[in-house]
Amino acid sequence: MTHEDWRTIRHRLRSPVLCFVALLLLLGVNVLLGVYAPFRWRNIWMIEAGIAVAMVLIVLVFSMELVREPPVIRLFAGVGFYWLVILFSLTLLDYLTR
Amino acid sequence: MSGAAVPVGIEVAEHFQDANQQRHAAVFGMWLWLATELLLFSGLFLVAIVVRVMYPDAVTAVALHLKFWIGATNTAVLICSSLTMSAAIELSRLGWRRGMLACMLATASLGTLFLALKGYEYWRDYVEHMTPFFGFRPYVLSGDRATQLLVDDYFIITGLHGLHLTTGVSVLLGLAWIARRPSFLRHHQHRVEVFGLYWHFIDLIWISVFPILYLLNR
């Protein structure tokens, strides 16, 4: 392995390593919220859920490389989650308004 | 790349115009399948959320019995495995076969570690009488029937995820066995990328499982 090889590998691994660090940091925040803030604030779940959504987006966009894929694949992945929005919103609309 | 690098490419099947089209078709097919998997897990997640809305006290009682730290550790283990899988993909693109194989084996090891921790967690649940579906054992929260809904859902979700992870580890080891041949990357580099999508999806599902089951209900 030459110096140039290592530089290429470092360059290629930059994005995965940044994702890894971001995911671990977000997990750390969620774990701290789970350990130190149970029951104190009723709506803490909103922050925890928001962090989880951010983690999912990082995996989708960068780890699964949707950002690099052609529009048709991005559209298809997006539609998969669009169905989820319909599933969750229609079901919870019922339970939350009873 | 010099030294350890080998030629990289895709052997184009006759029904594709070029390697790029073949790669996109493979990625598209994997996304199609992952979308159906997503719907499968989402139904189970929805059950957990509805139970939480309907019976918040029962759900909190269950959450305090779940092994929060094992769940958190397992999330970190899968995040590490996502890094090693991404590294395997990048190294496969560069043609660095040995590094790619090492990263694939590291990914499989981390997946196995996850399964071992999950197995220990199930054992603790069994010992602590948190298995309401076993009629021959008393259930620790038997005074509250609503808790049984979430505990059953917990075992179905984590069991299904464990099944996917077991499949992932098996396929990954098989792929690593095939990829040890020097000619693999010259003909089938895209297979590592397509499998990587599945592995990251398993990670994505657990990233959702951890807050929904272990965290939000505490």
Chain-wise SSE layout:
The complex is a heterodimer of chains A (98) and B (218).
Chain A: H1 3-36, H2 44-63, H3 71-96
Helix pairs in contact in A: 1-2
Chain B: H1 19-54, H2 56-63, H3 68-94, H4 97-127, H5 145-179, H6 184-215
Helix pairs in contact in B: 1-2, 1-5, 1-6, 2-5, 3-4, 3-6, 4-5, 5-6
Could you please describe the fold and organization of this structure?
The complex is a heterodimer of chains A (98) and B (218). With 98 residues, chain A is mostly helical. In chain A, 82% of the residues lie in helices and 0% in strands. Chain A is built from three helices and no strands. Chain B has 218 residues and is an all-alpha fold. Chain B has a single domain, classed as Four Helix Bundle (Hemerythrin (Met), subunit A). Chain B is built from six helices and no strands. In chain B, helix 3 runs antiparallel to helix 4. The model of chain B has no long low-confidence stretch (mean pLDDT 93). Classes of the chains: A mainly alpha (98), B mainly alpha (218).
Largest beta-sheet characterization of chain B = none
Mean pLDDT of chain B: 93
Total strand count of chain A, please? 0
By secondary-structure content and strand pairing, the structural class of chain A works out as mainly alpha
Greatest contact pair? Answer: A-B, 51 and 51 residues
By CATH reckoning, the class of chain B would read Mainly Alpha
- Overall mean pLDDT of chain A stands at 91
Summarize the helix and strand pattern of chain A as letters.
Answer: HHH
Query: Per DSSP, what share of the residues of chain A sits in E-state strands of 2 or more residues?
Result: under 5%
Give the uncertain stretches of chain B in residue-range form.
Answer: none
Structural class of chain B: mainly alpha
Oligomeric nature of the chains: heterodimer
Helical fraction of chain A: over 70%
Number of domains of chain A: 2
What distance separates the N and C termini of chain B? 51 Å
Shape of chain A: flat
Radius of gyration of chain B: 21 Å
Instruction: Quote the distance from N terminus to C terminus of chain A.
Output: 65 Å
Number of strands of chain B: 0
